[in-house]
Amino acid sequence: MQIDSRIQWAHGHDFGVDNQHREAKVKNVFWLTTVVMVLEISAGTWSGSMALLADGWHMGTHSAAFAITIFAYSYAKKHANNSEFSFGTGKVNYLGGFASAVALAIVALMMAIESVQRLVEPQQIQFNEAIVVAIIGLSVNVISVFMLHDDHHHHDHDHDHDHNMKAAYFHVLADTLTSVLAIVALLAGKYFDLIWMDAVMGIVGAVVISRWSYGLIKQSSAMLLDKSVDSTVLKKAVDKLSNDGETIIRDIHVWHVAASHQAAILSVAAKTPQAVEYYAEALQSCLPKLCHMSIEIHSLRTQKSEIQSSEIQESEIQESEIQND
Predict the structure, then answer these.
(1) Which of 194, 224, 254 finishes a domain?
(2) Count of the separate structural domains present in the chain
(3) Phi-psi region for residue 245, left (φ > 0), alpha (ψ -120 to 50) or beta?
(4) Which pLDDT score is estimated for 311?
(5) How does DSSP classify residue 156?
(6) pTM for the structure as a whole
(7) Which of 311, 112, 132, 298 is closest to 209 using CA atoms?
(8) Distance (Å, rounded) from C-alpha 39 to C-alpha 125?
């Protein structure tokens, strides 16, 4: 679709940040996680370890999440200046995250069912082989944590709100925790004959994945459905706009168009309206993430005059009808 060349855009709609360096790090962690995922799932299937399978599938879900993160970086960068996207491509990662979270919940359910079956009908486990592979998985997770930690640390101080990097960092932490659970279960089974621990840790892994899935669905759906900003922040903006005592707020909507960018629609009315810059600055002071504003200004005095004029005309019409009679 070609956009009319007569439109003079007031600002761009590229709401992303330069993530080339972070994208490269996420790619490295993605390949590490994927290789270990295949190793653990294969070893878990061969050895009969449900905990190892749970850890492998857990790593698989995060590997998929890393793939979505990489795709989001790439797609957003490719279409950053594409005017066909009204508010840019800031929501691409949330759309992919929502789809990933639904699939993730299904995987967690399957893991839980399989683990319960293992509790009812215990199976023989090749402990030595399974422990070796689990330790390899834990080592890779620790390496991944250190690979992403520096960027995550700088991200917190820079306040650029790269949720992709933040999510990737905590996914790796969750993988590390699940690997530890798998090793604990295997050691308990080998040295204390607590075979049931393997299935229990499989259930624990399913719970961890379910919680991550729920959190991702909750966060991504709020963005995709244009959920309004917090009511206390909105009230602060309304108070700021109407502190002159005569401005009436007819309509106000504020929502996220990207992780750290917001848009707003405002409709105000007053007897003596202020300039549009006044309302824009008032909004910006309460909502520093605003990058796009549409403001309607109505004059109450004009509307009152129009109503009075209409009443006079109606009265004249009625008088004319009486005279004609």
Answers:
(1) 224
(2) 2
(3) left
(4) 46
(5) H
(6) 0.67
(7) 112
(8) 16
